[in-house]
Amino acid sequence: MFLNSFTVDEEGYIHISFINKLLVEGLTLEEAKNQIQKTLNEYFKETTVVLKLVNFKVTVLGEVNSPGSFTIDKEQINLFQALGLAGGMKNFGNGKKVTLVRQTDSGSEVIPLDLTDRNILASDYYYLMPNDMIYIEPLKAKSNIDGSNFTAIAFSSATTILLIVSILLR
Question: Which domain holds residue 4?
Fold first, then answer.
């Protein structure tokens, strides 16, 4: 048995020495496998093509403990596994307001998700695709808490100034 791997270039081609190049961009794994198999059958007898996605990247941003891009070395990963790679949601992460950005042939698709809804498990977006980006929004309470700290400091400062002024005026 002979196994070899090929990289898809930026233009969507794989380069096989005796075939030159073969366009696989936009094809599913099964479609690409069938196309490669058909092409190889023209050159060899009894070949078998096994096609697997070796790795791809997903990005997780927003209210997570370790935001960033992650290389996935499995054939698939789901939303919750990707969040786990990013260290999980922070205390102020809003699981009801998650945005998935997916690259398509027609551009970027922006998909709002609610991770607290059980139906997410049956969603077309449960499993991630190469180059997907997940953004976890902060809870509104976080901005209120951040704002209330500023308000408390401002009122405290104003009270202190008024107290000093009243003492000086006596």
Answer: 1-52
